[in-house]
Amino acid sequence: MSGPPGRELGREARSATPAPAQGGGLTREQGAAVLLVGLTGGIGSGKSTVSGMLAERGAEVIDADHIAREVVMPCTPAWCKIRDHFGPGVLYPDGSIDRQALADIVFGDPGKLALLNEITHPAIFERIAERLEAAHDRDAIVVLDAALLIETGLAQRVDVLLVAHSPKEVQVERLAAKGMASSQAKARIAAQLAPEERLARADLVIDNTGSLEDLGRQVDDVWRELERRLAEQPIMAADREAVWPTDWTDPATQREFWFGFYISVLDRLGHSGDRQELAGALYETFTDPASYRLFEDSRPALEALAARGLKLGIISNFEPWLEDVLRLEGVRELFSVLAISGVLGVAKPQPAIFQTALDKAGVEPGAAIHVGDHPDVDGAAARAVGITPVLIDRFRRLPPAAGPRIRSLTELVELVDAEA
């Protein structure tokens, strides 16, 4: 359910089924807002052309393939390991790596390919991290252009995953135009990640089947969307740094907290007007239950979970009027348990609010999961009382965290069914 910036209602659906863990990520220094975009695509998909167009529109591009060449320059640690493991036959007379000779050795041999990745990937990741951690004196959209973005796990560490896609026949045609035999092109395509899997992971897709003009129009659309998401970054930063009050039943405390939150967001946005007046207007809007709407997937997913016989509840750092919101949206009857900080006087991440919900539901911690959108206030706090946390990250913009991560409540239903 959408609400104030950084807040999502109806998100803490509970189930009696734990889930497996996942996670990991690159870190970026605080400072100007940075939106990290992962760009990937199969060979011959036009990924490099898309990368160039994004650079023309103002993106800072980190070319992973270029970095991969840098880290194996003669006499670097990775170069020495490649020479020692694969022999002098993969070197040109000047000592540089003969990439085609090396590819011929590792292509079709998973063991040798894994060895090469073990040698090069740590150095590549370190160089990428150095670029990301470099100070920015302005807000920036940074594009990480990497053919193996998904395969190496880097896709889990970006804010937005952008996929350039072309049908197989178009890929083969483009590779043939570069002098590659059709059989070799098909073999290279077949050896890569299946396009269906790449597309399933994508946040945004560019279909590079048509003309350059058509591609340019699609890149323009994507650029506008990336600029919109970049503008949201200060809101997410303020949300991560918010310190929730302990006495949440006091209306004055609630007002003071949200005023501080909105002013923090306005500061990060560089707002130069009357922040107090604008913060007041935001507070009035976002304490009105009629201001909230369910995300489109919420009602069907909640109904599906309830139909499976699961007890649903909400653990929320909200004021008492949250229940009015649920009634207005017609989902109040789906929840058997409400643990609302504005009613109980205790707020996340304090363990007591989680324990209260468990007691009301009559569920043991090990038989419950908690779905939330804050790695610390939700995830770490739930884990502290023995509940399995699931992080909902609708826009792929939350920092790395341990435990399963979903992008919609529909995925929560799938996760529950997989573990049933």
Descriptive report:
The chain is an alpha/beta fold and 420 residues long. It is 47% helix and 12% strand. The chain has helices spanning 47-56, 64-70, 77-86, 99-106, 110-133, 168-177, 182-191, 195-201, 212-241, 251-268, 275-286, 298-307, 322-328, 341-344, 351-361, 375-384, 409-419; strands at 14-15, 34-41, 60-63, 140-145, 160-165, 204-207, 313-316, 337-340, 369-372, 388-392, 405-406. The longest helix is centred in the middle third of the chain and has 30 residues, at 212-241. The chain is elongated, with a radius of gyration of 25 Å.
Distance between the termini: 26 Å
> For the largest beta sheet, what order do the strands appear in spatially?
3-4-2-5-6
Strand content: 5-15%
- Rg over alpha carbons: 25 Å
- Outline the low-pLDDT stretches: 1-30
- Measured as a percent range, the helix fraction is 40-55%
Structural class, judged by helices and strands? alpha/beta
Query: How many DSSP H or I helices?
Result: 17
Mean pLDDT reading:
83
Number of strands: 11
Q: Per the principal axes of the C-alpha atoms, what is the gross shape?
A: elongated
The SSE order reads: EEHEHHHHEEHHHEHHHHEHEHHEHEEH
